[in-house]
Amino acid sequence: MATSQLFPIRLTNLMKVPETLVLAEELLASLQKTLIELENPDENPVTIFKKNMEEGFLFPAALKDATNAVTVYANIYQSILELKEIIELKKWD
Fold it and tell me: CA spacing 20 to 30 A to 59: which of 3, 10, 27, 76?
């Protein structure tokens, strides 16, 4: 049995895992910044849904926009968790 741990090539959001610690930390900072921006009240999926409905969007379209916002948030959140674990556990050169 191999003693080295295998790490994924890509994160949940399909971004490639960086090859150096510096690049991994830069990507982590960027993903965290994006997550903070998505937590802005104007980007909240409920706000998006309500705004779209008030602007006359059809229900399915408004729901699709809100669902897309939740999906993007969840993918970035999961990618942050994965990247933190990789940064902590990987033996960097």
Answer: 76
